Amino acid sequence: MERFHHTGSDSRPLVVLVGLSGLPAVATIIGGQVDWLLPLMYEPPGVALFAVGTLFFYRQRFEAIRLTGESDKPAIFLDQETRIQDYNQAARKLFPALEDSFGEPLEAVNTALADHLTKQDILAITQDGDTRYYDVSSTPFLAGEVTTGQLVTVTDVTERESYRQRLEEKTEQLEALNRVVRHDIRNDMTVILGWAEILKDHIDEDGEDALDRVLQKSQHVIQFTEVAREFVESLSEEGTAELEEIQLQPLLDAELAAVRDSFPNAQFHVSGELCDVSVQANEMLSSVFRNILENAVRHNDKETPEITVSCEENSETVRYRIADNGPGIPDQQKEQIFGKGEKGLDSPGSGIGLYLVHLLTDQFGGDVWVEDNDPTGSVFVVELPIHKPSNKTS
């Protein structure tokens, strides 16, 4: 009776059944005055009437009450024809049309809810000007292989859906920013760089230093737009990035050749031989090493920056160490320069290039950190898991 009351169901048929099971009590009271009642086993008929009534007429109702009554979430019990057999108070509050709808098809009571039984999207419900979002799930009940009914549960996912919508909005904004960076800013800076190079033959010695600075900064902005593009693309990846087998040695050779051309005043050395191993990554892996190599030159305070690349491997991982002779990085900033932790790019000293390095190495199942170089400078360490043929998956 308590379950019936909790779910808001009509309990009058149950009262009748309970009353039938109480008939033997009446026979017991009057048995002393009616001689022919004394020898009869009159208790079993009352119990039998209750059991038969429950089994044949009310079994499904009891099942519905048990299922809907146990759920704090809005729950609706449907038969095999998707007719409403029961619901709890939470469902009636969320869907007022359920009131007195026993036996009616769900589609006739709430079309949107009926449609979402077969859809995978979210159900939006607006009440009193407030829109909330719900996930609709259905659990079938089987007798053998025959579906006898289903329990429809409605779960409030407003917080999750609102977060997803905010992410979609931010992704659109990032894509817009990517277009601005790639086309507008990059194209304008390319034009500025072109005109500045023309001025080389038209200025005196006093203006050469200023022009060199303009050329250097223009090239830096163009390179920055490329890093920003790669950064936005890494954030726009849906789900887990698709990885493939990549050979590290030719990739490092190509990146070292590129930075040697870009920074002719710097010296790049390779200590020993580059490790000839493969890792699971994608084309963005080149951005990891490019950003570290370029960062080692741009933030170097020596007249001739010196960068040394070395590697070491064990049975599971490979480590590339990129050492420079720059000013070094204080211990309290060794984590912050990668934007690690909750602050991300807001961390003091974090640059978009190194933040991209952190995101990508994490995406590839590796890690990156910085150590002190001897006698001066920093060592950036990139660790990645080695990919072996036996590790391939179909």
Question: Could you characterize what this model shows?
Answer:
By secondary structure, the protein is an alpha+beta fold. The chain has twelve helices and twelve strands. It has helices at 2-7, 12-21, 23-30, 43-70, 89-94, 106-109, 111-115, 158-198, 205-235, 248-262, 285-298, 352-363, and strands at residues 75-79, 84-87, 123-127, 130-143, 146-156, 244-247, 267-270, 278-281, 306-313, 317-324, 367-372, 378-385. A five-stranded antiparallel sheet has the order 2-1-5-4-3. The chain has a five-stranded mixed sheet with strand order 7-9-10-12-11, covered by helices on one side. α2 (12-21) packs antiparallel against α4 (43-70), α3 (23-30) packs antiparallel against α4 (43-70) and α10 packs parallel to α11 (285-298).
Give the overall shape, derived from the CA principal axes.
Answer: elongated
Class by alpha and beta content: alpha+beta
N-end to C-end Cα span: 57 Å
Number of helices: 12
Rg for CA atoms? 37 Å
Number of strands: 12
Give, in order, the helices and strands: HHHHEEHHHEEEHHEHEEHEEHEE
Low-confidence stretches: 341-350
Largest sheet: 5 strands, antiparallel
Overall mean pLDDT stands at 80
Beta-strand content estimate: 15-25%
| Major sheet: arrangement of strands | 2-1-5-4-3
Helix content: 40-55%
SSE topology sketch:
Layout: H1 2-7, H2 12-21, H3 23-30, H4 43-70, E1 75-79, E2 84-87, H5 89-94, H6 106-109, H7 111-115, E3 123-127, E4 130-143, E5 146-156, H8 158-198, H9 205-235, E6 244-247, H10 248-262, E7 267-270, E8 278-281, H11 285-298, E9 306-313, E10 317-324, H12 352-363, E11 367-372, E12 378-385
Parallel strand pairs: 7-9
Antiparallel strand pairs: 1-2, 1-5, 3-4, 4-5, 6-8, 9-10, 10-12, 11-12
